[in-house]
Design brief:
two-stranded antiparallel sheet; 7 strands; alpha/beta
Amino acid sequence: MQRVNVVGTSSTGKTTLALALAERLGIPYIELDALHWEPNWTEAPNEVMRERVRSAISGKAWVVDGNYSAVRDLVWARADTVVWLDLPLPTILARYATRTVRRVRARQELWSGNRERLGHLLGRDSLLWWILTTYRRRRRDYPVLLAAHPQITAIRLRSPREATAWLASVAQR
């Protein structure tokens, strides 16, 4: 594993796993959200995002955290491994609630000075709405997408316990 993409629905633990994997392998960690979000929750234009990703993945080894379809072709063209966190929806929703409450209470800065606010919790622009509308689609689409890239080693982790065990099995460098 030299170039790994950790994917999954929001709140599955992609960041936690990708950071731990990058540390274990001793290679750079790349967070797609940090390349995507600009101040005031403004999305970077696709070409800007694509150029940022091209530059970020130009090295010989990395762990990319995220699954933006606008840059999947770039990341997967270089990736040797995709780790798919395919956790049950109740687990994801519990993680979402815990993480969001923590971030709102702490006024945690995320990317480009952005912070989650109570107003972000509900509605069609909320992360909860995103989770609920993408969960089934990702479970339907990822097997097809991964099958279309036989050069990539696909690792599907279906529970937090399985993810922890898999990470422990990865040899440290």
